[in-house]
Amino acid sequence: MEKKTVTTKGINNVCKHNIRAIHDALDIIGGKWKISIISCLTFQSMRYSELLREVEGISGKMLSRELKELEFNQLIIREVIDTQPITVQYQLTSYGETLKHLTLTIADWGLNHRKKIIG
To answer: How many CB atoms lie within 10 A of CB 62?
Structure first.
């Protein structure tokens, strides 16, 4: 079997490809709030008021904006439940569920970083 060598040009192409993919991902889930919202929804569906309470520091206006963007990108669905008064719940789509591992990995890294820096 022939051994393949990776040239500098090949490494640069892989690097550019990965950077482009990372930028695409961060365009969708980046920012201060989206990954926190997604993380909350990986555990259970939640009402707007529950998300507002769980995601500390987010304003109502910002939460509305972020939920609309996440829904547009097919990561969450907004479900209107026919109750009195009407209840609206948000939950991850099956596509959004693919981010669960990523949110857990980021949380683990953050905890380890906190231990390393703070002690």
So the answer is: 15
What is the length of the chain?
Answer: 119
- What would the pLDDT profile of 51-71 be if each residue is shown by its tens digit? 999 999 999 999 999 999 999
Total-model pTM: 0.83
CATH fold of 8-118: Arc Repressor Mutant, subunit A (1.10.10)
Domain ranges of the chain: 8-118
CA neighbor of 49 nearest in space, from 9, 90, 77, 84: 90
Q: What is the pLDDT of residue 7?
A: 62
CA of 104: how far to CAs of 31, 57, 97, 107, in Å? 17, 21, 12, 5
Pairing verdict, β 87-92 and 76-81: antiparallel
Q: CB burial class (10 A; 0-12, 13-18, 19+) of residue 3?
A: exposed
Question: Average pLDDT, whole number, for the chain?
Answer: 92
Separation of alpha carbons 22 and 25, rounded Å: 5
